[in-house]
Amino acid sequence: MGSHAATALARKLSNESEDAVQGVICLSFPLHPSAQTHTHQQRRDDLRGFPGNVPVLFVSGAKDNMCDRVLFEGIIKQRKAQVEVLWIEGGSHVKGRSEESVLDDVNLQVITWTDKQGA
């Protein structure tokens, strides 16, 4: 499941039951289409509507052309929930560092985050 679909499902399930979702991990959240930062409003609103009781880890490439870092960090600052963001240096939505080196970073961060959540 993609990051956008995962956040929509988690929002729906959390509205039905507060304990339904223990946390969400989003890998490469697509805030907007490639290089079209002006179209981010819908996904911004989706993130704003995300339940405050659900911790979220966002992992994104620092060069991701579908998630402008400045826009994304501005949106995240407005959230009341427990949110962590990991920017993978050299990573992008499509091309960037080798897959193996990116996965090493991502796996370490995901494991560390889940341990902190008590999962």
Structural features:
single chain; 119 residues; alpha/beta; 3-stranded parallel beta sheet; globular
Short structural summary:
The chain is an alpha/beta fold and 119 residues long. It is 42% helix and 13% strand.
Present the secondary structure layout.
Layout: H1 3-16, E1 24-27, H2 41-48, E2 56-61, H3 69-77, E3 83-88, H4 99-117
Parallel strand pairs: 1-2, 2-3
Protein architecture, described:
This protein is of the alpha/beta class and 119 residues long. 42% of the residues lie in helices and 13% in strands. It has four helices and three strands. Strand 1, helix 2 (41-48) and strand 2 (56-61) form a beta-alpha-beta unit. It is globular. It starts with a helix and ends with a helix.
- Overall strand count: 3
Which range best describes the helical content: under 10%, 10-25%, 25-40%, 40-55%, 55-70% or over 70%? 40-55%
* Unreliable spans: none
The run of helices and strands is HEHEHEH
- Major sheet: size, sense and barrel closure? 3 strands, parallel
Question: In angstroms, what separates the terminal alpha carbons?
Answer: 20 Å
Q: Can you count the helices?
A: 4
Broad structural category: alpha/beta
Give average pLDDT, whole number.
79
Radius of gyration: 14 Å
Shape descriptor reads globular
Strand order of the largest sheet: 1-2-3
